[in-house]
Design a protein that fits this description.
Elements lengths: L5 H13 L1 H7 L3 E6 L7 H16 L3 E6 L2 H10 L6 E2 L2 E2 L3 H25 L4 E5 L6 E10 L8 E14 L2 H8 L3 E5 L1 E3 L5 E3 L2 H12 L3 E6 L14 E3 H10 L6 H13 L4 E6 L5 H7 L6 E4 L1
Parallel strand pairs: 1-2, 1-11, 2-8, 5-8, 11-13, 12-14
Antiparallel strand pairs: 3-4, 6-7, 9-10, 13-14
Helix pairs in contact: 3-5, 4-5, 7-9
Length: 298
């Protein structure tokens, strides 16, 4: 039997000790994680994400997962010969498209994530926002200015929704029984209508309702870049407003930073936008001194 490398063993112990203050600080606290992008597609990253979530639960934290599924929806629509339409980054969701969105998010992607976490040793339960009216929603309407200032153009996105209310009772029940909720971003209207909602938005609203300790959004970028394409480790609301105004923050990053700001206003302590393409990115953000990505503070 080879002799153990004592120096290597000590380094491993040092790594474990680095996490000690965070284990103490976050014990019993809720962390909402939005899962999306490459981390949902690459097999190695899918497995490492499930391990991260399971570990958070075993060391005494309460992870809540909200997931997207845009690429999976797009592929399914393509196979069915249904053309995808987008307006300002939002998928127009009506008729057959809405049926496919719900089928893929709730019936396929959600169950796969639950299975991954269960295989890693966690107790996961799949939900959509329709379960126990977890996410009550209403129709989102987008308007654009026209030459006639009194009559803006109204753009119909179909059954794309915005969050009206989050009812956390079911999440509190699952937490008491040590289950990990995995939530598909589908909401329910007053008349039982189904709404497709941006997953970043749903994660921010759920973090706000739970008064979570952290909101962590996994993306396919290292975090938020400045105008020179350099990663910004930390930002506050004022700096973000200036970057939106100047156009440095735009496109798909907008719903992410807005979700973070919404959560912070409601009492969430810290929010993070991190690179989900990095293996064990959640653990690296939560348990290390340097962290990765960009943290957004009040």
């Amino acid at each position: 039997m080879p002799k153990p490398d004592m120096e290597d063993l000590i380094k491993r112990a040092d790594i474990l000790l680095e996490s000690l203050p965070y284990l103490r600080q976050f014990a019993g606290k809720t962390i909402v994680i939005k899962y999306g992008g490459a981390a949902m597609v690459q097999e190695e990253l899918k497995a490492s994400f499930a391990e991260d979530i399971t570990l958070l639960k075993y060391v005494g934290m309460n992870p809540v997962v909200v997931h997207g599924g845009g690429p999976q929806i797009g592929k399914t629509l393509e196979r069915m010969g249904i053309k995808s339409r987008f307006v300002d980054g939002q998928r127009v969701s009506e008729g057959e498209t809405l049926d496919v969105v719900e089928m893929v998010l709730v019936g396929k992607v959600n169950k796969e994530i639950v299975s991954l976490i269960s295989n890693a040793g966690g107790k996961a339960v799949g939900l959509s926002g329709k379960d126990a009216k977890l996410v009550e929603a209403e129709k989102m309407v987008i308007t654009k200015p026209t030459a006639d200032e009194d009559r803006p153009e109204i753009i119909d996105l179909g059954m794309v929704g915005k969050v009206k209310r989050v009812n956390i009772a079911i999440l509190e029940t699952l937490d008491r029984d040590d289950f990990i909720p995995v939530i598909a971003p589908v909401g329910v209207g007053d008349g039982g209508q189904t709404y497709n909602i941006n997953a970043d938005t749903v994660a921010g609203e759920i973090a706000a309702a739970l008064k979570a300790e952290k909101l962590v959004l996994l993306t396919d970028t290292p975090g938020i870049w400045d105008a020179n394409k350099e990663l910004i480790p930390s930002l506050d609301g004022k700096a973000i407003a200036e970057m939106i105004q100047s156009g440095v923050i735009a496109g798909g990053m907008l719903p992410k930073v807005r979700a973070c700001l919404r959560a912070l206003v409601s009492g969430v302590k810290k929010t993070h936008i991190i690179d989900g393409r990095v293996k064990h990115s959640v653990l690296l953000e939560v348990f290390t001194n340097t962290g990765i990505g960009t943290q957004i503070l009040p």
